[in-house]
Each structure stands twice: as C-alpha cells, then as structure tokens.
Write a structure and sequence with these properties.
about 240 residues; alpha/beta; D-Maltodextrin-Binding Protein, domain 2; 2 domains; 5-stranded mixed β-sheet; 10 helices; globular
C-alpha cells in the first residue's frame, strides 16, 4: 500500500509528517511503515495501491473524483476563512509592492502548473472578475519556485496557497523580498483521498484521532487544527478557468 503527504512536505516539516502518518497507521492498524516520497503525484493518486494521500482541489474535480474516494479535508484554521477552506495570496516583489493587479498583468505571471487550484485556477478566476488576464506566463513546476522567481525578479507576480506562503515566510529568507497584493476567495482546501477499494469512513476516523494525538508542536508545524468533511459536490462546484 502507498501513503503520501507530499503537498506540504519540506525538510522542516518532514519529521512532523512522518509522525502524523505513524499516528494514522497506528489508528488504522495497517498500512505502509513509511510515507512514499519518490513517486510522481499522479502515479500515487491513481495507483490501485493508494491507501492515503493529499491532492489538490483542481485535479480532484477535473479527474480524480471519478477514481478515488474523499476521506476528509484538513482544517488549517486560516484567518478570515471557513473551516476546511483556504485561499491564495497574490505576491509581487517588495520593490513594486505599490503596483496594482492591472499593472502587474502587463508583466509575467509565474504559476506552478496548469492543474493547480491555488497557483492557476484561483488567481485566474480572481483576475477574470476584474476583466484582467496575465500578458505573459512562466510555468515553474512548484509554488516555491514561483515565489523564488518573483523574489529574483524573473517574474512580476505569482499566486501561492496560504499555507505554502506561511511556510515560505517561516523558513525562507527570500520571503522578505515579497509582498502580498491580494488574496482570492476561499475554496475547499486540499483533500485527503484514498483508493476505490478502501473504507474512507474508517480512514477518516483514524485521521481525526491521529491529528488529536499529535503534539502541539507538530500541529503547529503542519498548521493542522483538525479534520472536516466537505462533500465532493462542494469541490466540483468550484469554477475551472481555461488552461494556459
């Protein structure tokens, strides 16, 4: 079986993710001893051996909801945000922190990948409501790389999900060169999923107990404040803009 928690896995959070998975496994009474970190996300999400993983809302609504089962939604307790929801922050370089979104759209927009809710869909939907479209685009492959592209002035602005932004602010020195110019409307956050042959209710209960059993330090590192159940229909209702 496969378990992966790669969406917010970085050197500073990996030990806490390991302890979270260990707690889930202890509650379940079965599963792989360690998290998978050497497989492609899509390969994991679509594997018949998938026991537990976290995916992004856009891949879930555009494809995965037909192949996987939704376990639950982590609550990151973001400010001014409903439980189990998140938003994107739109960032630019501190040197041009006064720029408007209209002005920034004349430059280069960095995004991690086309099937990212927080990096592509949320900001594009936000800009479309203002009749704006980025003039030039730079695909970076990761939120971290999008933020770095803006910090290094290879791109003019980018969108990151709020928890990724918090981790960058916490651990990366280049964050001091970045400025938030806007934030998008909240949508259901990245869901936990399991394969079609698993029991999602059993896993949901195990995850709920495991989060409660984590130390306060680990919960703070991961930003975890509990588990919510947001139905698939809420994920599927989020609008999907045209791909780049």
């Amino acid at each position: 079986m496969i378990a992966m928690l790669g969406m917010y896995d970085r050197p500073e959070t990996s030990a806490s993710n390991d302890r979270l998975w260990s707690a889930i496994r202890n509650e379940l009474g079965h599963g792989p001893e360690s998290l998978t970190r050497d497989m492609d996300f899509w390969e994991v999400w679509q594997s018949p051996d998938l026991l537990f993983a976290q995916t992004c809302g856009m891949p879930y609504r555009t494809s995965l909801h037909r192949q996987v089962q939704l376990v639950g939604t982590p609550n990151y307790a973001l400010p001014d945000c409903p439980a189990g929801h998140y938003y994107s922050v739109i960032i630019t370089h501190m040197d041009v922190g006064h720029a408007t979104l209209s002005e920034l759209c004349q430059g280069t927009f960095a995004y991690n990948e086309p099937l990212s809710q927080s990096g592509w869909a949320a900001p594009v939907n936000h800009l479309q409501q203002m009749d704006l479209t980025p003039t030039k685009r730079l695909q970076t492959g990761a939120h971290y790389l999008s933020a770095m592209a803006v910090a290094e002035k290879r791109a003019d602005f980018a969108a990151l999900d709020a928890l990724t932004w918090e981790l960058i602010r916490r651990y990366d020195d280049f964050a001091q060169n970045l400025h938030v110019v806007a934030r998008t409307n909240p949508t259901p956050t990245l869901p936990y999923i399991t394969g079609p042959k698993q029991n999602p209710a059993e896993i949901r209960l195990a995850v709920t107990k495991a989060i409660s059993a984590l130390s306060g330090e680990d919960r703070a590192i991961l930003g975890l404040n509990g588990l919510e159940y947001i139905p698939p229909s809420a994920y599927l209702a989020v609008p999907t803009p045209p791909l780049p």
